[in-house]
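During the no-cost extension, the postdoctoral fellow (Dr. R.K.) reprocessed legacy sequence entries with the updated structure-token encoder. One reprocessed record is reproduced below for audit purposes.
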Amino acid sequence: MDDGSLISSFGNEVQSKKNWIDFSPDGLRLAVGHQNGVLGVWNLGPVLGEELFDLNSSCVVYPNPTQDYINLQGITLPATLILYNLYGQEVYQKKMQSSTADIRELPNGIYMGVLTTQQNNTVPPIKIQILH
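Re-encoded structure tokens follow.
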């Protein structure tokens, strides 16, 4: 493609020429890649017959990409937000009492977010891009 876009393992267009992260449409598989291709695909699906994510929950993250704050719409508070970098390292954790999270401390990049409510419901993973 002339615009530098890539196609992930799940057929989604990825606009980054460097590192990228993508989720399958059902939110149960994670693909991580680089400009040269896919580095790996992981199943996030059911463990011992239990659903890992509440697929009836939906969370809207905006603005995305962002510079300093993200807003989460469609979640029950309080909730815990955990962000992982492309290496799978936990880089941010916050118990959210409001729908806004301050992410200014994080460097530019693409992060995978996992959001768990007080009732232990986990919404499908969210992808967040930070551009300072």
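Residues 90 and 96 are 17 Å apart (CA to CA). Residues 6-130 form a domain with the Immunoglobulin-like fold (CATH 2.60.40.10). The remaining legacy entries will be reprocessed before the final report is submitted.
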